[in-house]
Every structure is written in C-alpha cells, then in structure tokens.
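Working notes for the structural subgroup meeting. M.R. asked for a predicted model of this chain before we commit to crystallization trials. I am recording the input and output together here so anyone reviewing the notebook later can reproduce the run.

Input as submitted:
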Amino acid sequence: MKLAHRLSQGHDLAAWIEQQVCDMQLSGSVRVRLAGTCFIVAQEHHQAILLLLSQTHPLHAPAFALVRPVFEAYLRGLWLAHCAKDAELEGFSHGKSPPKMPSILSAIEQTPGFDSGQLSDIYKQSWSDMCAYAHTGSQQVLRWNTGDAIQPNYSDAEVDEVLSFTGSIALLSTLGLAAIATNESLAASVLAKAHELSYQFKSDSAISRE
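Returned structure, recorded in token form:
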C-alpha cells in the first residue's frame, strides 16, 4: 500500500475514533477514569505519529519513538480496567508505578475473555525494538546513517508497519473504552471498522466480560 494512502487512511481512522468517543458517557469510578485515560492517551499518541509522518519532511525519529507509548498505554489501560486490585488502583492514582510489563501482560492474559498469548507474542517479538526507538538505541541511530551522510533512512515498509500497528492499537483502545462503558454498539462499530481496514485482531483480545 502506498504510504500516502496509508497516511490518509490513518488520519481518517483517527478522525473516526475521535468522533466515536468524544461524547462517551463513562462512570466516575477511579478504575474507569484511570483506564479510560490510558486508552485516550494511546489514541492521541497514534494521532501524533500521523502528524509527525505527514510533515513535508517527515519526522521519523519521534514518530517511531512513540510506538512503544501507544502499546504501553493500551496495555496499562487493560490492566487498570480488568486486573488491578483496589489497592493498586489507589497506589497508581497517587503516583505509584504500576507493575512491570511482563506482570501486566500475565495478569491480562489470565483474565477470562482475553486471547491467551496474543499480546505476549507482540511483546516478545517487538518490545526491545520499541524501546530502542524510544531511547535512541541502535535501531534508531542506524536508520540515520547512510553511506554518504547522517540523514533519515527509514524504509517505506517500516513506516507502513508503524502506521498499521499503531492504527490497530488505536482501534483496540477504542474497544477498551467500549468495554468499560459497556457500550456494545460502539464495540460492534469498532469491529466493523477493523474489518473494513483489514486489521487482524480478535474481539476478545480487547473487550472483556462485564
């Protein structure tokens, strides 16, 4: 798929998500407020990636650095929504750090209604690369070194992968919001949009039982 089309598709998706969630009704519980914020932050990071890559001279480095925060915000949203104990919610709401990501993933995937192993597979395959881009590791640095100069040298395939992955996580975050709002209509709309865009994920990986 041409990058211009993928970017246009991404902007359309971000606008669609914003339209779906802008007037959502959510309960005022600590759990819902914290989880809902994480899902919205994941969506905003996705929007930021689109803006960075849509510049006349695309800003690849910060766009790639935001891939980890998109995924991380989504996972923390799931953990807060479905796994965190009341004491953990209280601690997080007062600045205490959440568990490390492997513990969060383990808790999510032991929760009824979630596909066991799907998120862990992404973590195992891609987390170290996400961290390298976020923290200026070798993957980021090497993509600025060509044979002749220091300049961005990201392949179209890599940019396309970032757009596709973060778009799918933005949609999953919208499913996360549908779950905490018990909004079945929104969940159905999100799954229909995913099918329309050919994103491949299972509905039970993002929306848990009530």
